Amino acid sequence: MNCTNTAKSLGEESTAEDVLAGVDLAGKRILITGVSAGLGVETARAAASHGAAVVGTARDLAKAAVALAPHQHLNIEVVECDLASLASVRCCADQLHASGDRFDVVIANAGVMNCPFGRTVDGFETQFGTNHLGHFVLVNRIAPLIADGGRVVMLSSSAHRSCDVNLDDPGFDNTPYDPFLAYGRSKTANILFAVELNRRLARRGICATALHPGGIQTELLRHTSPELLQQMAAWSATQADGSEGRPATVKSVEQGAATTVWAAFVAPAATVGGRFCENCQVVEMTPAGNRGVRPYALDPKRAEALWTLSEKMVGEHF
To answer: Are 113 and 149 in contact, with CB atoms under 8 Å apart?
Structure first.
């Protein structure tokens, strides 16, 4: 799927349509989680409008129907899946297996951010359980449906730079809960999952990658207070030496979906596999500051350890 778009330079201001200009996705089948709002809707629309058959998942099917109504001519299919319930995740996977159809790309887009402390149906801290463990089970259960040479794209965040995963206390049982710290842990987990998945599926030519879509005003911020939003903006502008730099650019939803479709359909697989992307490019490791990807997020040993812990937590071996 290395149909590289060379028509124009791609970067921070590119939209999904800029990325997919001249790209024909006819014959491709795509799964996208979280198609009831924001980036999920735009990613589904962009892929479907370029010829792909798109299947989306949503916790609330009625809400997804309303969100996708302007694009009903694109025939985007929606399957129920609540990532905060492993029973729902497993039911969704069973439904997808029942059809037997292959997927060329799986995009793990859904998520929650900065929630008050809570637990999923299965007792996991909400953000780690939803953003990481829900996707961990779903992607692994449908891995046999991913076509050889296919791709898995995990939506992470620049928030991964706030902290590594805590393998000893993933549920904040012994440490004070902080909503942004919990979000950062879950987003680091998304990257580490992609790293290990990329290694495990390499024999089938499947690549897995993770990315930061950018700062976007979407429904994802519904739990973020104005004060926390201000703190996040200041944090994102802090450079490696501790000085204040340029605040992160706020992107439109159309711009926010650009890196996702670039990593899924345009970038060479060998370039993005096991890496972290932002602004339609692979970024380098940086130990501090507001740029790049943290070394701990790409650490293969941490990735393997998280996989082992995740299997233990969900009670399944993949």
So the answer is: no
* Domain ranges, residue 118: 20-310
The pLDDT tens digits for 255-300 are: 999 999 999 999 999 999 999 999 999 999 999 877 899 999 999 9
Is 8 part of the annotated catalytic residue set?
no
Nearest to 212 by CA among 271, 134, 160, 135: 160
CB 52 within 8 A of CB 79: no
User: Catalytic one among 157, 158, 187, 296?
Assistant: 187
Half-sphere exposure (Cβ direction) of 246: Cα atoms closer than 13 Å: 4
CATH number where 235 lies: 3.40.50.720
Catalytic status, residue 156: yes
Whether 66 is covered by a domain: the verdict is: yes
Active site residue 187: yes
pLDDT in tens, 35-68: 999 999 999 999 999 999 999 999 999 999 999 9
Q: Is the pTM of this model over 0.90?
A: yes
Within-domain flag for 14 = no
* Structural domains in the chain (count): 1
Q: Which of 156, 158, 162, 310 is catalytic?
A: 156
